[in-house]
Amino acid sequence: MVMRGKMLAVWIIILLLNAARGREVCYKRLGCFSDSPPWAGIPGRQLAGLPHSPDAVNTNFLLYTRDNMVKYQRISATNSSIIKASNFRAHRKTRFIIHGHLAGADLPWLTSICRFMFHSEDVNCILTDWRDGSSGLYTDAVNNVRIVGAELEYLVNFLEKEYGYSPANIHFIGHSLGAHVAGEAGRRKPGIGRITGLDPAGPLFQYTPTMVRLDPSDAKFVDIIHTHAGHLFFDFGILQTCGHLDFYPNGGKRMPGCSQLRVPPATRDINDLMRAYGSFGCGHKRSLRYYAESIITPNGFAGYQCDTYQQFVLGDCFPCPEEGCPLMGHHADKFLRKTEKEHQKVYLNTGSSPPYARWRKEIHVKVCAPETMKGNIDIALTGTNGFRKKYTIDKGTFKPGNTYLNYIDTEISGNISKVEFLWKKQLGHADRGCMGAEEVRIISGENGNMSVFCGCGAVQPSKWQALALC
């Protein structure tokens, strides 16, 4: 009996050790994959199962170039003759675009990103299509991230071996789960030039070890755009910094023009949530829209390096330093100090509808009036292209000779050609006096340049006053 008890204890220990080690599956081309920690069974990643087979995930690489902007060419590292017969050219930079979970409706946007690039650069643009591995349960798609990352590594190794192609010339652009696919490929293949994470997926990745998610070590330069980030279980995007430059447009949580998703508190199953809301996560998809527009708006989307969004709103990080501000999106790599530190937070505001790019300006309005007035003051700015837009500067009580300040994010790029002033009397305020703008100073955030416009006299409520350059 004693011997049987000892044997039973030994078998229990063996079973526990095997459970801790987890299961493993291996594939000839791609290597082995296990469900041991940190891939599963850790806080924030209560995940079960192994990736599907490479055949089931069915990763396809669809090549677009200036020579075939509309119809893709399917290329494969398992058949060298296909790549040699394609329009792939080794002298070009190669940008891979990688979709996320339930990406069917996003594919037209992803291919349009390639076409936008061709307006300004001659690149190999490769859409990484893994819909067979990402269209089912979210938890299955999370597991399949590793298979697609391994497929990318296999293709990059092939290009390096057959063409002498440097990994430094490769740029992975991944949306949602696709951002972590890029991270996995970069973890496997050192020396990748750049990874851009477009609202990297949060569920089962947030605050997990860097081995299982995108982080700055995965490429020479990693830039992130957070558009639906949060601590809550059902927020699509990751909140934590995970790049060299982490951009948080509009604070990174709620995008203008997108309604907030309301999820029943009792709904806690991640697969149910992602199936119900993943196909129309407006904020989550804004990262794609912002990136696409940034390609054709090279001086748009300037971001300001602040510790918090509140500091940005208050103007604590305004204007840009002498070396300039980082640009969110395609041209983020132009920033000279991009890899000086990891986890640099960058804030900016966007519009609620396209075009999304905005240019931040600091507005000072010095008022003139015979007495203290109550109401609100507006200005209208007109650009050199004739575009005119009105902005509210302040509301409340205005004293003669005082200057009032506000920060605006305007659609107008470049110089301001015309400034107008308007004030509206507070409802119920009996005073019938006049008020005007003695001076309006406009400071551009991107370069600190100042324009000063002067006014003459005062106007009655709801009457526009035109100012001229001083």
Poorly predicted runs: 1-20
Based on Cα principal axes, name the global outline.
elongated
CATH architecture of the largest domain: 3-Layer(aba) Sandwich
Q: Provide the residue-averaged pLDDT.
A: 90
Work out the helix count: 10
CATH C-level class of the largest domain is Alpha Beta
**Which structural class is indicated by helix and strand composition?**
alpha/beta
Largest sheet: 10 strands, mixed
Going by CATH, the homologous superfamily of the largest domain would be: Alpha/Beta hydrolase fold, catalytic domain
> What is the N-to-C succession of helices and strands?
HEEHEEHEHEHHEHEEEHHEHEEEEEEEEE
Strand content: 25-35%
Any chance you could write out the topology, listing elements then pairs?
Blueprint: H1 2-21, E1 24-27, E2 31-34, H2 54-57, E3 60-65, E4 68-75, H3 80-84, E5 93-98, H4 107-118, E6 123-129, H5 131-134, H6 138-163, E7 170-175, H7 177-188, E8 194-198, E9 221-225, E10 245-249, H8 270-277, H9 282-296, E11 304-305, H10 309-314, E12 344-348, E13 359-368, E14 373-383, E15 388-398, E16 403-410, E17 416-425, E18 436-444, E19 450-454, E20 465-469
Parallel strand pairs: 5-6, 5-7, 7-8, 8-9, 9-10, 10-12
Antiparallel strand pairs: 1-2, 3-4, 3-6, 11-12, 13-16, 13-18, 14-15, 14-17, 17-20, 18-19, 19-20
